[in-house]
Amino acid sequence: MKANLSNLQDTKHFADFVARKLMPGDVISLEGNLGAGKTTLLQFIASALGISKQTTSPTFILFRVLPLVKSKRGIKWLVHGDAYRVQRQEELTEAGLNDYLQDPHTVTIIEWGNNVPNILPKRTKQILIKKDASDVRSATYPDAWGMLS
Ligand SMILES: Nc1ncnc2c1ncn2[C@@H]1O[C@H](COP(=O)(O)OP(=O)(O)OP(=O)(O)O)[C@@H](O)[C@H]1O
Ligand SMILES: [Mg+2]
Hints:
It is a single chain. The chain has helices at 8-21, 38-48, 90-94, 97-101; strands spanning 2-5, 27-31, 63-72, 75-82, 106-111, 125-131, 137-140. The chain has 149 residues and is α/β, with parallel strands linked by helices. The protein has a single domain, classed as Rossmann fold. A seven-stranded mixed β-sheet has the order 1-7-6-2-5-4-3. A hairpin with a 2-residue loop joins strand 3 and strand 4. Helix 1 crosses helix 2. The chain is globular, with a radius of gyration of 14 Å. The two termini are 12 Å apart. The structure holds adenosine-5'-triphosphate and magnesium ion (MG).
């Protein structure tokens, strides 16, 4: 399925939708070129989940664990990873990511997840942000989530 992200308001609307679709244990690979808007979407998703802490990109720490103030549908933690600078896929595993990938109360969202396909579970879902020729953004997301509403 496809969502237009013509401006930040659209990205926020899409993030609210994603936050309603996420289930505990979900792993999302958040993909798109440099500057596509991955971190921006993730910040809006975090805020829709009620996470107050500002989620800057975890450039130097591979991933960060953000607790939900109040658990939502069994989701207690959001893990925000960024595989942009990863040299070996196993770096994320060695940093302890598996504990979170396997945790039934955690949602894991990895920017540049396409860089680390071998360490992500088979059930990993994809959100892909693209910019068209006139720099208008859109996101593709799992069909199972249905129409953006
Ligand atoms: N839907 C949108 N409409 C307009 N501007 C946007 C939109 N989404 C993001 N931006 C802007 O694009 C810029 C890059 O966004 P962001 O840092 O989220 O991209 P990114 O994909 O995480 O980049 P990187 O690949 O460096 O991690 C920011 O200035 C942000 O405000
Ligand atoms: Mg980013």
